[in-house]
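does this look right to u?? magnesium ion version
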Amino acid sequence: EKNFTIALVGNPNCGKTSIFNALTGARQHVGNWPGVTVEKKEGTVSFNGNEISVIDLPGAYSLSASSEDEMVAVNYILQEKPDVVVNVIDSANLERNLYFTLQLIEMDTNVIIALNMTDEAVKKNIFINTAKLRDALGVSVVTTVATKNKGIWELLETSAAMKVKPGRPVQPDYWQTMNRESGALAEALVEEGIAGKESANLVAVRLLEDEAFAQTQIAGCPTLEKLADKEKDRITSRFGLEPGIYLADQRYIFIGQIIKDCVRRETPPQRDLT
Ligand code: GDP
Ligand code: K
Ligand code: MG
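got this back:
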């Protein structure tokens, strides 16, 4: 396959557009996503005989479709299924950025991490062990400094390799648990024609999390509304927490362990000035 698509995603201000510019240069087109006022940036880059389309998705803190920007990002990933999803991360704010990364992993995307702003991280004495981060998430990690064009070639090389042989991100225990618990609801969503097989699990979990957009999708279908309520109550009494709170807690615990294992904060030795 010589033509494929890379989507750039991540929190606002992590450097997505800078990476997009570094990748595509002048070969880009700016328009709008259909139905919304969100800007759509597409470009192309030729690399080792591949013709690669690059999409700069709007920034988002989560993948729950609670704003137009998030909705565009979620819909694009679920419906257009880009071959490779590049999760751009601000290295100086790894902890916050990884919340989004976990959601990408949960969505079963072919994800690579671009660990961007590594220059800023070093200035703040933050050192990230990329090999450990890769192993903890089961995701390739490329370090970049977008504004200096650093790591861009490696990003293309890794993307091309991932297109041929998709990655195998970890499946966190909490997510497997939640998927088991939401199985009946997911099946009902497929039966009622609300969700396709590939997105039913995700919609089911979002319903259990009380996510507004998912709720609008089942509005007018009392059977599903009742089942969602019933399942939410059942899981809540089982976990002792509402599903949304359980998931957020579990993600933060998972991230906390990663930060502990992969990040070192070190101030350089002080010079003795006496
Ligand atoms: P986006 O919101 O994710 O598209 O982020 P932008 O690409 O607009 O970048 C946000 C700001 O960070 C801009 O001022 C960029 O010039 C800057 N920036 C992007 N990447 C880097 C980087 O690797 N290092 C540094 N120091 N600044 C960066
Ligand atoms: K910005
Ligand atoms: Mg941008």
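The radius of gyration is 20 Å. idk if thats expected tbh
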